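The instructor's notes for this session suggest beginning with a concrete chain rather than abstract definitions. Hand out the sequence below and ask the class to guess, before any prediction is shown, which regions might be ordered.
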Amino acid sequence: MRLTQRQQAVLVGTVLGDGRLQQTGSRNARLRLEQGDKQKAYLLWKAEVFSRLFQGKPSYITRTHPATGRTYGYWRYQSNTSPELGKWKDVFYREGRKRIPENLEALLSPLALAVWYMDDGYYYSRDRNSYLYLGRVSKHEAQIAQQAIQKRFGIRVRVYDKKQKGFALYFSVAETKKLHKLIGEHILPEFDYKLLPEHRKQPQSL
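After discussion, reveal the predicted structure:
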């Protein structure tokens, strides 16, 4: 099967964020989705976008943190294998490691950026600025992301080294306004808290 433009956008945002593409054989791959207990609806929304690839039901998994002893649960949903997903795996993975590809600018769309932001973005209401956490990527990869967003959307961001948390992209107050205006229509209502009040879909309580 070939992915539609909407499916490609959601896949790009998902793989840049919390999703994983796993090799299954020489040419195929599958998409693994994992979300916390409170974000099951978000996981199901992603799976519905790829309805032909996801069958059955997601699994609820519990794990105990080896250091703290705290038990936590999350939802996992894995797609069927597909050569189309295998092609996308080649874009985002090299030598077994997920990476930010050099051609990211060509892959980004407002929807892809919105999904990425729902996965790994944060809005700080006190300062009215935003971050997009990239995790443990190289500084070069962080700069690829920085330049892709700037060239594709005209949004200027800075690369921050968050040390233990890895690299992140910082959006100033002015650039946060541009970002939220661009992606606001694609943000699901349960993620309204990640947006400026004027872009939220849910009515705010007094």
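Then share the key points. The chain has seven helices and ten strands. The chain has a mean pLDDT of 93.
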